[in-house]
Amino acid sequence: MDMTFSGGKEPSVDLLKETEVLYREVAEELALAMRGVRQGETGEAKAAIQAVKDLRTAFQMVMDERTRVEKLRKQVAGVVRDYALDFDAARDEIGRRLARLREAGGGG
Predict the structure, then answer these.
(1) Residue 42 in domain
(2) Residue 87 included in any domain
């Protein structure tokens, strides 16, 4: 995922991509540790527990980063409370209201 936002420097690392890579690596470690436990290697149980903890942390990092990316996308698109702001329509409405005020002017 490559996003560029005006007014800021581009990030040096794609955090979402890196977090997903980390997630996959920890999942592989967990699979290997579980294989060892199934084969009776009790020392692998400790590694499996640590891999589960790491996997949980990596998953949380992915979810946090996805939330941030989605929030930034909405900001760039002008979305507020799940609704996109239509600046052109707002500008037109302001123009109409100002025109009506000008037409009705001089009454005060």
Answers:
(1) yes
(2) no
What is the domain count for the chain? Answer: 1
Residue range 29-80, pLDDT digits in tens? 888 888 888 888 877 778 778 877 887 887 888 788 888 888 888 777 766 6
**Any domain includes 53:** yes
Confidence of residue 98 (pLDDT cuts 50, 70, 90): very high
d(CA 19, CA 74): 22
- Contact yes or no for 26/51 (Cβ under 8 A): yes
Please report, for residues 4, 52, 83, the alpha-carbon distance to residue 1 in angstroms, rounded to integers and kept in the order given: 10, 27, 24
